[in-house]
Inverse folding.
């Protein structure tokens, strides 16, 4: 069965100059296929390469990179990888957004980008799951693991606290964001969030932390 390996832990930090983005980066092993979910920003590039190297891997060994959405802290290392999936509804440079500046499209300009729609099967037991609300094209991955159904959520569920409150940190569509959180509660046994430790779900409520 597939398994999820946290390469880099996500963290949520704030300063008087805005939030500091450290997103979770997760490696899904599905048979011989290796799927990376999010890749972090350029400041974590060495950490990402080191985490891959610790597993005997290099970027060329990743079959596909799935981007949960196009915000800067999730996409800046995408140029390391040959094939990238992103939802077609995702705006790579929304007007006036500080989170997806105009150069985001340039980061993806040198790689092969493919659309990732809800229900797309990437390997046996690994499917794309639409989680709109934080952004229009936010997506996750549903992974059927031996420990239960895992959902890699990006910032649709940034943290266990956000899931308890029923609100993500920011949303272009609050109604859709709440519906996406409800979907996670109804589907997942394990949650791998955008900016927090992975955790279990017990009757839809965050439970124990998983090893990070």
């Amino acid at each position: 069965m597939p398994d999820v390996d946290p390469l880099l832990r996500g963290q949520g930090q704030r300063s008087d100059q805005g939030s500091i983005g450290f997103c979770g980066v997760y490696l899904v092993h599905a048979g011989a296929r290796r799927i990376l979910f999010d890749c972090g920003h350029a400041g974590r590039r060495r950490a990402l390469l080191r985490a891959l190297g610790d597993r005997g891997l290099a970027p060329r060994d990743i079959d596909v990179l799935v981007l949960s959405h196009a915000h800067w802290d999730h996409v800046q290392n995408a140029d390391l990888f040959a094939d990238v999936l992103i939802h077609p509804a995702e705006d790579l440079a929304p007007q006036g957004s500080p989170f997806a500046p105009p150069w985001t499209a340039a980061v993806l300009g040198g790689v092969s980008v493919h659309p990732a729609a809800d229900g797309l099967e990437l390997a046996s037991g690994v499917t794309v799951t639409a989680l709109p609300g934080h952004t229009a094209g936010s997506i996750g991955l549903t992974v059927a693991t031996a420990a239960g159904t895992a959902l890699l959520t990006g910032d649709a569920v940034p943290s266990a606290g956000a899931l308890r409150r029923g609100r993500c940190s920011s949303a272009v569509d609050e109604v859709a964001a709440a519906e996406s959180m409800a979907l996670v509660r109804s589907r997942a046994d394990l949650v791998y969030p955008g900016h927090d430790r992975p955790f279990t779900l017990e009757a839809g409520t965050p439970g124990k932390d998983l090893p990070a």
Q: What stands out?
A: Residues 3-209 form a domain with the Metallo-beta-lactamase; Chain A fold (CATH 3.60.15.10). The CA atoms of residues 122 and 128 lie 7 Å apart.
